[in-house]
């Protein structure tokens, strides 16, 4: 499914490293501006297919399903 920068940006800003940067004193507005300008070169005024590498693990008690 194609995604635009406008819809991709909230995902990027939800990453854990963002919280780490904020805790080190980097203003969220500065991070948002950097992401916006950096990804603007990739997205331009169009949508892109974005692929996510994911890892899914299910944990259950032994003997239960």
Order of strands, widest sheet? 1-2
Q: Give, in order, the helices and strands.
A: EHHHE
Largest sheet: 2 strands, antiparallel
Helicity range of the residues?
Answer: 40-55%
- Distance linking N and C termini: 33 Å
Secondary-structure content class: mainly alpha
Assign an overall shape.
Answer: flat
| Total count of strands | 2
What's the structural domain tally?
Answer: 1
Chain-wise SSE layout:
Elements: E1 2-3, H1 5-13, H2 16-23, H3 28-43, E2 48-49
Antiparallel strand pairs: 1-2
Helix pairs in contact: 1-3
Task: Write structural notes for this entry.
- The protein has one domain.
- 51% of the residues lie in helices and 6% in strands.
- It has three helices and two strands; from the N terminus they run βαααβ.
- The protein has a two-stranded antiparallel sheet.
- The relative contact order is 0.19.
